[in-house]
Each structure stands twice: as C-alpha cells, then as structure tokens.
Amino acid sequence: xxxxxxxxxxxxxxxxxxxxxxxxxxxxxxxxxxxxxxxxxxxxxxxxxxxxxxxxxxxxxxxxxxxxxxxxxxxxxxxxxxxxxxxxxxxxxxxxxxxxxxxxxxxxxxxxxxxxxxxxxxxxxxxxxxxxxxxxxxxxxxxxxxxxxxxxxxxxx
Length: 157
Prior knowledge:
The protein contains five helices and two strands; from the N terminus they run ααββααα. The protein is mostly helical. A hairpin with a 2-residue loop joins strand 1 (about 70) and strand 2. Helix 1 (about 5-25) packs antiparallel against helix 2 and helix 3 (about 75-100) runs antiparallel to helix 5 (about 125-150). The longest helix has 28 residues, at about 40-65.
C-alpha cells in the first residue's frame, strides 16, 4: 500500500468514527418502553474496532513519514515546515488586513465626518501582501512535493 492510499484510508476512518460517535450518542438513551433505532453497544464495539484500525494506520503513516527522505530531510520535516509556513501566512495576512483597516471598515463603515478619528497604517500593507503571496506559493510547492512523495513510498509495517 502506498502512503497516499493509507492517508486516504485514515481520512475515511476518521469520518467513520465521527459518524459512529453521533449514532452512539443518539441511541445511548431511550424512553422506557421504546426501543432505540440502533443498539448503542453494537455501535460502540464497531467504534472500538475502527479506532484500533486507525491507530495501526496512524503508527504506520508516522513511521513512513519519519523514514521517507525528501530533498531537505524527511516527509515529517516537510510537514513541519508546511505547518509553520501556514502559521506565518495567517499571521502576515491578518497583519495586512488590520493595517489596511479592512476589519474596521466592515464594522463601522468609511469615515463620514472630517472630525472623526483618522487611522494610519503602522505596517506596509503592500509589502505584507506580497510576502503573504510568496509564502502561499511556498506552501503550494511544499504541498505538491509532499503529495508526490506520498505516491512514491510504500507504507512501512
């Protein structure tokens, strides 16, 4: 099994656990004299089985990500880099939005009178936007490299 296939299965198992959890909670109690739509104890057993499979899969994915080498390290290193790039992108985009007054205008609208307070940007908005665009491009490149590697490596036992 390729790493990409394992990642897809992991996603399906996570969705399955969420769905089972909702069904368990919906059937955990019922009125006396009524029967629930489903047996919560059977659903709980199925939930446990799915979680056991998910744990095995996550362990194998993590082992593979740690062992699979890429240009500057492992897939785990690339994932960490991508996560930090995303955080950096969010912070810079938020700073640009705040400096441009975007949020302020949404709340109060544009200035109506000359006597109203005037706000001045403390940060270079255009430069921040350009930096955010560069970071977004880096994120896309790292993502593409990770996805390519996911199809090249077999899952480690």
